[in-house]
Amino acid sequence: MNISLLFSHIPDGFFSILNGKYKQVYVEILQEIYVLYQESISLIDKDILVDLLCDVMEQHSNLFDHDEEFLDFRTSREKANYFFRKLRDAKWVAEEQMMDYTWKVSVPDYALSILRTFEQITNGHQEEYRGRILSVFQHLYGEEKESYISLQQAYENTVMIINGLKQLNYSIKQHTEALLVESDLHKVLNSFFFDFEEKVLGAYYYRLKSSDHVSKYRVRVLEAVQKWQFDHERIRQQSELLIQDQVFRELHQAENRIYSWLETIEKSFSQMDEILNEIDNRVKLYSRAAEQQIKYHIRYTSGLEEKLNTILLEIAQNIQATSPSDYIKDGVNELISIFSQEFLDSNSWKIPYQSKPKQRSSLVEKGEVSETDKKNEIEKILKRSNQGKTVEQINDFLLRQGKGKSIIPMETLPTEKEGDWLSLIYAIVYSQSKKAMFELSERNEAGKRTIKVGKVTIPHRSFIRKGERK
What we know:
By secondary structure, this protein is mainly alpha-helical.
């Protein structure tokens, strides 16, 4: 995107009116201008527009009564002309005098595009999916299928489908987040049964998943795209037509644009299932969130038991604060039996969970450790560390005991001393290490699985040099 070209179309200070304290008023005025401009065949009559702005001024008259900026304006029409001048200076509208000396108002193209976007955001625009994929197919296989115009129309419809699915994907995410923080059950139900189904998904999306499913047209569309991609002569001819129609000046620019259209169509139809599956997952998450919210509100906020608990708690608080102790027996018992209670069980399931109190810090006396105790602890730590064996040490141990043999039976290894016994244990543990030179043999299923050596019993297995097991 050419940034300098963008700001050559949009004037400076264009968005300044939307930053002030009356931005809500300006937005309402712009909406009215957009509706009036859509209804008008030609330009807007300025007097009609000012009359419309007068109605907006009267609706917001309380905002201007105490503002020093509007003290000199006595009538609503003067205020309307003031807001119109602000819009004209910011280049949202333009006025011109006609041949009959009347003043007309027009809306620039850039402002019209932004107003259209405002309307879609405000009213919840729903993308039209119906017929889009069929339109792509028809443009690629119709009578004008050899023309770059049909290819461009197929490309534009493809982009509309993908952009619409992206917007739908994000819209579902927004509705899910809003649903999770909603505290009113009626709004939760309305959002689930009306807003989401009708305004977000709509019938068009379901058609895209059923009758207008992409799988019905994907193969044929991709075949047509591949024919275009391998037909270099047709691409060159259509590129020359683009130059003749003054769309491009250079041949390579036109060819690159055609290849870009083809690549977009191919990529979109090949990967469209990915975003459709993501939308399906978001719909499932939304339904699950709605179900949880409805269950929560019905169970914990709208149930009869919860309402009775709230009423009784309020009665108890009022009695404790203002009434004598015998009020429960004399007055309330005539309506409903209420029994006095001296204490409340803190372990009862009806007691709501409360946060634990913060722990208060206290000073800890520093204990003195003698030098002898320190020395003993250090010796214990050193002794434990010396007993540990590394993989390299175990490899040297097995090489020394095996004396060059590739198979070393466990019963041939020494176990009398504590160090030898530890070496045997480490050899078994390290046998699965990548750095170990020896591994354990298979278990002896036919004979004994253990063997007794002296006073100890060890597995009846051997250490085999890695790479030499049969």
